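> tool_call: predict_assembly(chains=three)
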Amino acid sequence: MATLDTEQPLAKHQATENLRTDELLLNMGPQHPSTHGVLRVIVKTDGEIVKAAHPEIGYLHRCFEKHSENVDYMSVMPYVDRLDYLASMNNEQGFAIAVEKMLGLEVPRRAEYIRVIIAELQRIASHLMAFGTYGLDLGAFTAFMYGFRDREMILDIFESVCGARLLYNYMWIGGVARDITPDQVRMIKSFCEYFKPKIDEYNTLVSYNKIFIERTRDVGVIDLDTCKSYGLTGVMLRAAGFKWDLRKDMPYSIYKELEFDVPVGNGEQGTLGDCWDRHIVRMREMAQSVRIIEQLIDGIPAGPSRGKIGKVPKPPAGEHWSRTECPRGELGFYIVSDGSTNPYRVKCKSPCFMNVATLNDLSHGVMVSDLIATLGSFDIVLGEVDR
Amino acid sequence: MTFVDYCETIKDITFSTLKGMGVTIKYFWKVNTKGAITIQYPEQKDTLPMGSRGLLFNDVEDCISCKQCAQACPVDCIYIEADKKGAGAPADMTKGGVKKTLDLKRFEIDISLCCYCGLCSAACPTDCLYHTKEYEYSVVDRDKHIMDYMNYKR
Amino acid sequence: MTFDAILEKITARFPGVTFTKGETKPDPFIALPKEKIVDVVKYLNELGFESLHCISGVDYPKTNTTEVVYHVASFQHRTTVCLKVILPRGDGQSIPTLCGLYRGANWLEREVFDMNGVTFEGHPDMRRILCPEDWVGYPLKKDYVTPDFYKGMPVPLYFADQGEAGDPGQPSPAGGGH
């Protein structure tokens, strides 16, 4: 049973000297289905108990920061897409906001509305993917199918809005690449109508399933102190019971005009900050995203969808650190400009980078299967960890 | 864990799983062959929405060789060569009525490098470079992915 | 808490240490000597700046300096403060580690070491993190030259280095493997 006390078996095991076996060095990854990409975890196991797990990253390093120094600000956008490829729109929004702040540019209200609607749709898509793959990690294949069915609908909307399904290059500096049409507005509306009752359905299907609860409760507990020590943000922080959402607390774009709640973990099924809390925070965030879209979709103001901006944006010399709330946490961009068309330095601080770093601390004395459950609940995307 | 707790857990597992099965069963009755979502791909093709970004195409008749697309390209996969027009050459206009001052010698795009970001087609002043909806162009040789639009045949 | 208030508090807490206010737009920064970085971050933690968000290294060949930039964020004050340690450029610069204060500093500092070659004194595990262990050079230094080969494998070259349009007649050694 998954409710085995994680501390006790190890202590007992160590005490019985004659039962002691050699430690086994297990190489989990880089090609491993449950690591969500190319993450290598070197696991030191003693029987079924993990003694240490060292994540090794860098297998998907694509030199984002070095590339950005060689192209102009507009051309960085397609590279930003490829950081967190499951939430490209949110990444784009983050980078666009950072550069616009440096340029001192005001974005038309219509563009802001479109951006927030699209970003929230992307958040739903990303959380659906997290929900689906988390089920898959724990051996529930059905959840994956449901998650992908609804994500597909969002991708269809995106394809119609911007022409691509995964790597959009849609939110440009100063606005959005294409305006949205009444037809697409209707599509988004009907998706919201369709999707609202589905969240409860998924909760019945997965979240409140006793097997799922037994697998995830009291597993991979991250308390608030650990969160602060590691600089964790987003879902990880909220699952630890800390009410902090950049959209609410340091609002950017038009979020301060919107009404929505920030769901936090409350240790409903076990300890505060366990895997189940992280899962349920994601599920509840989807409902809030639908709420945000519904507030905006009827009142998109008329006007241009892109502000007046030169062909090649040229921010004045200076530097800026900007943070935005992405599905996986706060995505930070530190941009240094020397006044030329190319950025002097772009540093991307991805939320998943820190999430993976916590894995070693969480792995002492847990079962191998619990390690998978913990890793799955982080919802990591290696494109973002390695950049 | 006592035996009673154990039985209790088994009971919970059974009932919550049955509840979940109920969700699936609801969809089970809705499935029929008419409403099938899967498309039998090579025979049947999906209709792509307007503005889908597929293979790039350049109408060289309308191209004024301004090289703005090559500058906008983040992966530098557009290769353009153009000469100044000779003094006695006849005046050449695009369909939109823009005078061509340069003689386009070469316009090639390495499609295997292209990331379909759409920055080049947005930068094009005469709208002669655009994304088509074509998506089937796999080749055996990588060199064949360098599309030569001066003598383009597909 | 405004930027000036933070600067005032730090200056009052550490007399005799020069804190320079950097007037960059839109975000200003505080430059401080490297010996004091641990104390200052610790003091900021007491002030409510509980979260170390980012450590980045920036190379400036023009002024012959390398900057290590710390972004420390506060939940209660809803702001971020930017600290900078300016080191002379060259090989083997070092700076005290923050691993004793923040566990998250471990990987962030490893990344700075990997990309900019700044060593952190007292770091428990000073290895490369994103590049392979045996990679030569520090990629985000401005004078870094991309090697042609890594263990016999051609390294994909960035096309802009080869003139404006590259040469499609001879695709890059990797066969265009961007």
